[in-house]
Design a protein that fits this description.
There is one protein chain. By secondary structure, the protein is mostly beta strands. The chain has two domains: about 230 residues, outer membrane lipoprotein receptor (LolB), chain A, CATH 2.50.20.10; about 120 residues, MucB/RseB, C-terminal domain (Phosphorylase Kinase, domain 1, 2-Layer Sandwich). It is built from five helices and 21 strands. The strands form three sheets. The protein has a twelve-stranded mixed beta sheet with strand order 7-8-9-10-11-1-2-3-4-5-6-12.
């Protein structure tokens, strides 16, 4: 979605946790009012502006950053599950500041200033601090325009509609292959802000729907007020997520065959605590969990790679939450001492392609 998604980002993290820690109770899910095959298109048929895929995505990308807004955001999936959040977004010069308050599930407040993210968990009195390279925005475009997106998606104008009281142009992004989902997008006519998004599978079924149920554009949001709230950690224990930037080559990983359209975005390692039998007092480098992230500009995939731990005895498995799919499996020899969790808002066959291509180089 065009705002930082507490939904997609949290789903990805929680799916990984579900496999690794056997807990998926708070995973984000999406609703299902529109899960019928061939969901109804907007009634009005005025044509949206004539633009190619890249032009549409750049317009949406800018719309999420150049306007102040406050709104209630609802995410739903087949089966009737529903998640919602209240979002405050302000542009302060070159800075982006957001507050996202979960309205369903456990209490949670997330603040973001550019790439600095703080998540407040009131029940645990904990605030998690991290710096994110990939902000799970829609469209998830790189800093520089990438015209290769048009090699994998076509754009079709559908018409116009109204969402949360705003006129919106409606377009559909149609994938060229089965490695990615399609999208039906409602873009606010003046700003380009995405106000509604449906994720569509190869059978034309809506597997996710996200939309503003209420929205105020150009709302009087004060950047200073959000920054002060973000800085107020009194009474909370601060947990910093320590990630070290690295690269696949240095960590001994490669993709024997690239997955079409998906380009590497980042590679991080999470150091493990020193083990009792490590006389040096330092954790061995290869005991870290690494995260390798890819994106085609719209969808993203994260590969979490870790050493096999017999005490934990993880099992191979699959999991689907809305459009978020995950697979976990032991890698084949000669990398059989490693386990992979692949997570992304992509079809399962895309994750399988990554898993089959992932190879150890040392």
């Amino acid at each position: 979605m065009t705002v930082q998604m507490p939904i997609s980002a949290r789903a990805c993290v929680l799916v990984f946790a579900a496999f690794c820690l056997a807990q998926a109770a708070t995973a984000q899910t999406r609703s299902g009012a529109a899960n019928a095959k061939g969901a109804t298109a907007p009634v009005q048929t005025d044509e949206p502006p004539a633009m190619n895929v890249t032009e549409w995505l750049q317009r949406m990308h800018a719309g999420a950053r150049q306007r102040n807004y406050v709104g209630t955001f609802v995410v739903s999936a087949p089966g009737g599950d529903l998640s919602s959040a209240r979002i405050w977004h302000v542009r302060d010069g070159e800075h982006q500041i957001e507050r996202i308050e979960a309205l369903s599930g456990p209490p949670r407040s997330t603040f973001r200033r550019n790439r600095n993210v703080m998540t407040f968990l009131p029940e645990a009195k904990v605030v998690k601090v991290e710096k994110r390279e990939n902000l799970d925005l829609f469209p998830n475009l790189p800093e520089k325009p990438d015209s290769s997106i048009s090699d994998f998606y076509d754009v079709r104008a559908i018409g116009k509609d109204r969402v949360a009281g705003f006129d919106a142009d409606v377009v559909q992004l149609v994938p060229h292959d089965g490695l990615r989902f399609g999208y039906r997008i409602w873009s606010e006519r003046r700003s380009g802000l995405v106000v509604k998004l449906q994720t569509i599978d190869s059978d034309s079924r809506v597997v996710e729907q996200s939309a503003f149920s209420e929205l105020q554009l150009d709302a009087p949001v004060k950047a200073q007020a959000l920054s002060q709230m973000m800085a107020n950690t009194t009474g909370y224990r601060i947990e910093k997520l320590e990630l070290e930037r690295s690269n696949a080559q240095d960590e001994g990983w490669t993709l024997s065959t690239p997955v079409a359209g998906f380009k590497p975005r980042s590679f991080f390692r999470r150091p493990m605590a020193a083990s009792a039998d490590d006389s040096s007092g330092k954790a061995k480098q290869d005991t870290a969990t690494v995260q390798w992230t890819f994106s085609d500009g719209l969808a993203s995939v994260s590969l979490f790679i870790e050493r096999y731990d017999a005490a934990r005895a993880p099992r191979d498995g699959v999991l689907t939450i809305g459009a978020t799919n995950a697979i976990r499996r032991r890698l084949p020899a000669p990398a059989s001492d490693w386990w992979l969790t692949a997570v992304g808002e992509v079809p399962p066959q895309t994750l399988n392609a990554f898993a089959q291509s992932l190879a150890r180089t040392r």
